[in-house]
Design goal:
The protein is an alpha+beta fold. 32% of the residues lie in helices and 21% in strands. The protein contains ten helices and eight strands.
Length: 278
C-alpha cells in the first residue's frame, strides 16, 4: 500500500478487471457504456478496503498527512502511533468503480466502451476531517488494496454524475478531465473537461474523434510507443510523480501487475491537485 498523491495512478491496475459503473451512479446503459458491476463485487472490494490492517494503515496515512514512510516527519514514532489512533479512520459513502478512457475506444474499435473500470475507490475520513481514497483491484479471486490517495475525487465525481442526471463518470487522465456519459453525449464534470469538450459537451462520436486525434498515434504498438516515448505509465514516471506529489512509488507487485495495461501512453501525468476545481 502506498500514499501516492497521483491523479494518474488510475493506470496502476491489473488488466481485465471486468468492472463497470456502480448502480449508485445510475449507470448509462446505451452505446459506449460499460456493463454494470455486480453488487457482490462491490461488497468484496469494500470488505478489502475496510479490513483492520487497511484501517490501521489509513490511521498512519492521516497521522502523516500523506507524507510517505520514506520521508521523515518532525514527530517521532510514538507520536505518530498516537496520532494514528486518534485519527479513527472509517469508510464513508459507497465504494465505486473508477473508469478511465479506454484505448480501444480511442482506436475506434467497433463496440468499444468509452472507458473501462480500472479499480474501485472507497472514501475514507479521519476524525479531524481529512479525506483519502482507498483503491482496490481484483487479483485472481480476491480483492486487494493497492493504493491510498489523498482526497476523494473518485467518489466525488461519481456522486456529481449521479446528482446531475445520472450516467457513467469517467476520466481522461492525460488531461485530468472528468466527464459523464449520458444519453449518448460526453458532458464535462470539471474545468479540464469543459476546456476539452465545452460546457455543453459533445456527442459520443465527436468525442471519439477528438481523442483519436489526441492519442491515436500514441497507442501500444505505434511508432511513438516503439520509440520508447510512451513513458507516462512506466515505473520511473510513477516514482517521479510520487516524489513531486509527496508520495511513494507503488510496490513492485502492483507495478508488475499493472504498468503497460492502460494503453494511452506518453502523455504527461498530473498529480492530484490540492484543491479540486469544478
Amino acid at each position: 500500500m502506498t500514499s501516492i498523491r497521483n491523479a494518474a495512478a488510475a493506470v496502476l491496475i491489473a488488466t481485465g478487471l471486468g468492472l463497470a459503473v456502480t448502480p449508485a451512479a445510475h449507470a448509462e446503459s446505451g452505446a459506449g457504456a460499460p456493463a454494470p458491476v455486480t453488487a457482490d463485487e462491490l461488497a468484496q472490494a469494500r470488505g478489502a478496503a475496510q479490513s483492520p490492517a487497511v484501517l490501521d494503515r489509513l490511521g498512519h496515512f492521516f497521522a502523516r498527512r500523506g507524507v510517505p514512510p520514506t520521508k521523515q516527519l518532525t514527530i517521532g514514532a510514538a507520536e505518530e502511533a498516537q496520532a494514528a489512533g486518534a485519527a479513527a479512520p472509517r469508510l464513508s459513502g459507497d465504494t465505486v468503480p473508477v473508469y478511465t478512457l479506454d484505448a480501444a475506444f480511442v482506436a475506434g474499435t467497433p463496440g468499444a466502451a468509452v472507458a473501462k473500470a480500472e479499480f474501485t475507490a472507497s472514501r475514507a475520513v479521519s476524525a479531524d476531517g481529512q479525506v483519502a481514497s482507498v483503491w482496490t483491484v481484483k487479483q485472481g479471486d480476491s480483492w486487494r488494496v493497492v493504493n491510498i490517495a489523498s482526497g476523494g475525487d473518485e467518489n466525488d465525481y461519481a456522486a456529481r454524475a449521479a446528482g446531475s442526471g445520472g450516467g457513467t463518470a469517467f476520466r481522461e487522465p492525460q488531461l485530468n478531465a472528468w466527464y459523464v456519459l449520458r444519453d449518448g453525449r460526453v458532458l464535462p464534470l470539471d474545468d479540464e473537461a469543459r476546456r476539452s469538450v465545452g460546457a455543453a459537451g459533445v456527442s459520443l462520436a465527436a468525442y471519439q474523434e477528438l481523442v483519436r486525434q489526441r492519442y491515436g498515434d500514441k497507442l501500444p504498438g505505434s511508432a511513438y510507443d516503439r520509440a520508447g516515448k510512451g513513458g507516462g505509465y512506466q515505473p520511473d514516471a510513477t516514482a517521479r510523480e510520487a516524489a513531486q506529489g509527496g508520495g511513494a512509488a507503488v510496490p513492485a507487485v502492483t507495478a508488475a501487475a499493472a504498468l503497460g495495461v492502460t494503453a494511452l501512453a506518453g502523455v504527461a501525468l498530473r498529480r492530484r491537485a490540492g484543491a479540486r476545481r469544478g
